[in-house]
Each structure stands twice: as structure tokens, then as C-alpha cells.
Design a protein that fits this description.
By secondary structure, this protein is mainly alpha-helical. The protein contains twelve helices and five strands. Strands 3-2-5 form a three-stranded mixed sheet. Pfam families: 7tm_4.
Length: about 325
Amino acid sequence: MSQANWTSVTVFFFLGFSHYPKVEVIIFVLCLLMYLITLLGNTILISITILDSHLHTPMYFFLSNLSFLDIWYTSSALTPMLANFVSGKNTISFSGCASQMYFSLAMGSTECVLLSMMAYDRYVAICNPLRYSIIMNRRVCVQIAGSSWLTGCLTALVETGPVLQLSLCGKSIINHFTCEILALLKMACVDTSIVQLIMFVISILLLPLPMLLICVSYAFILSNILRISSVDGRSKAFSTCAAHLTVVVLFYGAALSMYLKPSAVNSQEIDKFMALIYAGLTPMLNPIIYSLRNKEVKMAVKKLLMRNPFSAILTSVPK
């Protein structure tokens, strides 16, 4: 079997969903719809958060960060796949593959941290409302968002660097629709135990621990909700929490099933569909679940539609 270094490989070939020719077109259509809805929903949320001063709060600051993140995350994972399906080439260059692997890991890792910080923000807002503006001041919010981005980018660099040093076996065929790091590790000719150990440690830090923080935060939130005397208020709060937790379970569950499964389990085909969930489905659901169902956001959209769009943009520019 022939060996090659990453630097000697110029083009990679994706297998994608070629094993399922009957449903490949359906998968393409679903991915295209998810991508377009993700772009539209997250762009709307970012726009109204900037233009409406009533939404200049910590919650919407984090949500706009999440929306910006989801646009880049989905674009890095789905756009090349959609373009390859249309062109029929199913190829990617070495530099394109390395970039795609890094940005997908960076955006995914950042989202893991950011979702847990958003849960903490909701915990402070609901369980300690009188001190909320003091605890979650502007400086703290910027530090939390910045540390989330920094953590995601650094951990992705730590994971991507060693993989790019590995020798590859055989043809440059990736059994995936994207340059997924796990699929690339299966192409290595050398021992990958050190790389897998690095990935395991980072996965523990970015998946179970943030998810535990989210569960603890929502446990306190739910205990506070139970004290609400109004039945309608309690049911609305439960509905909101259930929707948030559904998205969290989808995102972390799909990632956990991929990155922390036993090494003996070989489920490459299942991994492709899991990747579609956390790279396509959850970024599409995030703006709908977290924001576009809120009365504040609906009111902001109505106000902006009633105003002259040019004056709305001009009034948002600081003097």
C-alpha cells in the first residue's frame, strides 16, 4: 500500500453518500434547505440585534455570537458538499481540506463552550435577577464570548496540527462528505494513538463538562420555575426550557456519539448522519428555538419592517 505525506497530496476525493444513490438527491435537497434556513434565520437575528437598542442585552449579545458562529460552522461543513454535488467532482484541494477541518473543529468547539455560557447567563437572569446587570456586565460578557472563541480556535489548532503530520495510505479517498478529522485518521498508515489521546482529552473538556454545566444551570432554573404561582407562566417557562434542552441534547448527543464512542465501534456511515445533525440541523434550529419565538424579537422585526430600512441603519451607527 502506497504512503504519502499530507504535503504530497494535492487533491482528496469524497465518497459522501454515494453508497446511498437513491437518497443522495433527497439528502442534497434537505442539506440545501437547512443551509438556506440557517443563513436566513441567523442573519435576521444578527441584524435585529444590531439595529434594535432594546435587544442590546447580554442574552442577545450571546445569541448574536451564536448566530455568527452557526453561519460559519454550517458554511464550512455544508457549502463544499453542496458545491461538489452540483459540479459532480466530489474533490477538495489539500489546503481546502486542511482549512475545512480546522474551521469545522474551531466552530464546533466554540459552540460547545458558548452554549454552556449561555445556560449560565440564563441561570443568573432567572435565579439572581437583582444582581444580573452587575454580574453579567458588558465587560464580563465580552470576556465570556472572547474566551469561548479563543478556546475553540486553540483546541482546533491542537487537534489539527498533529493530524497534518501523519502519513496517509493508499488513494486519497475520504469516506465522508467533509474533511472530518475522524475520517482522515482512518487513512493514516502510522500509529495514531497519541492523536486519539489528544482528541479524547479535548472531547472530555468540551463535551461532557459543558453539558454538565448546562444541566446543572437548568436544574436550578427549573426549581425556580416551580415557584411561579401562575400556571400559564409556569407552562411557558417549561416550554422554553424544554425547547432549549432539546437543541442541546441534539448537538451534544450527536457529537458525543462520534468523538467519545469506543474505538472498537466502526460506524462511519452513522457518523455522516450524526455530522449532518450537529453541523446542519442544530444551527438551523438555534435561531428558531432561542430567539425567533420570543415576543421581543417578533416586536423588533415588526418595528424594523415598519421603519425606513435606510433610517434604521443610519440610526444604529454610533455618533
